[in-house]
Amino acid sequence: MRPTLQTVADELGVSRSTVSNAYSRPDQLSAELREKVLETARRLGYPGPHPTARSLRRGTTGAIGVLLNAAVSVAFTDPYTVQFMSGLAAAAERHETGLLLVPLSGSDDETAVRLVQDASVDGFCVYGLPDGHRSLDAVRARRLPIVNADRRDDDPDAMFVGIDDAAAARTAGAHLAGLGHRRIAAIFALPASGRPTGPVSLAGPDDLPYHFSRERLRGYRDALAEAGVGWAELAFAGAASYTRADGAAAAALLLDRPPRPTAIVAVNDMLALGVLDALAERGLRPGHDISVIGFDDVPEAATAGLTTVRHSAREMGRVAGGLLLDPPAGRAARDVVLPAELVVRASTGPAPTEGAR
Amino acid sequence: MRPTLQTVADELGVSRSTVSNAYSRPDQLSAELREKVLETARRLGYPGPHPTARSLRRGTTGAIGVLLNAAVSVAFTDPYTVQFMSGLAAAAERHETGLLLVPLSGSDDETAVRLVQDASVDGFCVYGLPDGHRSLDAVRARRLPIVNADRRDDDPDAMFVGIDDAAAARTAGAHLAGLGHRRIAAIFALPASGRPTGPVSLAGPDDLPYHFSRERLRGYRDALAEAGVGWAELAFAGAASYTRADGAAAAALLLDRPPRPTAIVAVNDMLALGVLDALAERGLRPGHDISVIGFDDVPEAATAGLTTVRHSAREMGRVAGGLLLDPPAGRAARDVVLPAELVVRASTGPAPTEGAR
DNA sequence: CCGTGTTACTGTATCGATCCAGAAGACTGA
DNA sequence: TCAGTCTTCTGGATCGATACAGTAACACGG
Fold this sequence. Notes:
- In chain A, about 40% of the residues lie in helices and about 15% in strands.
- By secondary structure, chain A is α/β, with parallel strands linked by helices.
- Chain A starts with a helix and ends in a 14-residue tail after the last strand.
- The mean pLDDT of chain A is about 90.
């Protein structure tokens, strides 16, 4: 039988409490006895206090749950997510805390809810889930600390970390407009509800289920409106996921049917890189024939010469972890807005003059 | 106060067991009563059975622990690890199981042990830890299922998944020898014991603390010995970590002091890609001036034209998860050796004739 | 020698569920 | 009709620890 505290206590003729204290509160017993206890434990093959039992009694688990928007298996291949996780992990390391990845992806709603309910964690980091995802109710029901990363919802108790997406997008939009672009298309992704990549009509940014996409599109809308380009004049394509391949597929639809836009904005870099792929396939020169703007400034963006909005996913992860593991007292401090800036690279340039090509 | 099973039971005038059954064993009570219980629970804001309490009673936690060799924060940036994790996550998803990342990196030995002891998991996947890592004893003491990925140790109970590293390396070594290479150097990494990247002398492969490095070097040794190249004729450089940058640094040491090798083999692709970087910096042509072989065939290897040994990290992760979550009956089936094959690309070519350059 | 502390350890209640033996009632078949 | 089975629900034991109040022993100042 697996040895327990009691086993060790009996062997030594001391009380269970004393053995427990030997592990968790060394100041509660003499150094000699403690040594004797630990030695006996070693001899009996007692691996130390049972983590689950300890968690139950203590009321804390030493782990935080991470809810990812995509399949864990996909998330790992997305550089932005990887950076975010890397920051989160750094924070967890500092607090000697584990990271429990909750695989929500393939699961139906019911399973997703159960997974959230069953997660032994002290708090949740919700990363990029679409609004209204079934698991969100389950998360709230747990009444644990929650930090939303790159997303906001109507939960007044949830903490937040992210950037001012709308403001950043406004800057990017102004940049485009300043270059003379008027025929502009936008690419975003829609949750994997089986919806195919394709052109869509969009009454307004509010129709998008992802907070960051929504805000970013809102920023573009405002900036372009200021330049005299109305919402109705924009073209849209919805990708099936936030991946490069789907970005390329979405771009293809925009490029292959007239009127061809002079600029394409994507709500993140992966989609934008896909756009560049689609341009390359067609022999179109980014920044000359068609301007492209991404968002996030993942490492590949620099290599590809992609104009984008730079902010630090890693820092965001770090802050998210900090908020969960060491929540600041003030309510205001639980809402962290990180800086972001437009990085102009070769993928944007003056709009080609009408009929020049 | 947070509602418990009892709260719901009292409200409804039924027993605690019945409420429990409503959640966990629907066949044990009538559909109507179950609906009433769930409805009451919803009304009271009861989030479902407490995961920790349930785990304690049931004896299972619904999560598996992952011990990574590097800082979690670094691991996420290594493509091979990412692929492995992606496979592991896929397996976890299928079994509705969480993945608990145990951040061992920055921690001193004592902390590492505590983290392992405190992890609420049903099993451990040990991935690429160096032999003798302190946490390994702690893992064994837990007496949980263990699967070693890409590593073997002397624990007879541990399961295994990996490839036949030595055989694969032998094939690669034969390839090099067949191309006429005789002045050959090898690059590997040493655990982050503060040891700097630098040239080292190595009595034999056995001195390496990483199983896979050891085996791979062993394979090269055998193949080269067969071609008449003795161990003493080989040059070595130890990198501080398995990263591209450290690979480049290690390669620099080999390239900048005569006699310059005609071929450099690295125990993984990241180091090898670093070697290519170092070559590029010096205007040396891989496959002409210097041949380079990696190991793993990460996606970047194809782009870089790197000759390497292909095997699937993703599949390995998947198998590791399967072994943990659904252990096969037979002892033999708990030792899975996946296929691997040499992929010859542009980075290897005939050895330059002496003094040709 | 008493009162007050301090140190070192014990014992019981408790964390929040699940398990399992068993009871009560309904149903079945001969 | 009555034993036997099924369905539905109950109650107590239990998982393995920690918290906290309490006790005994010893020290120390006055």
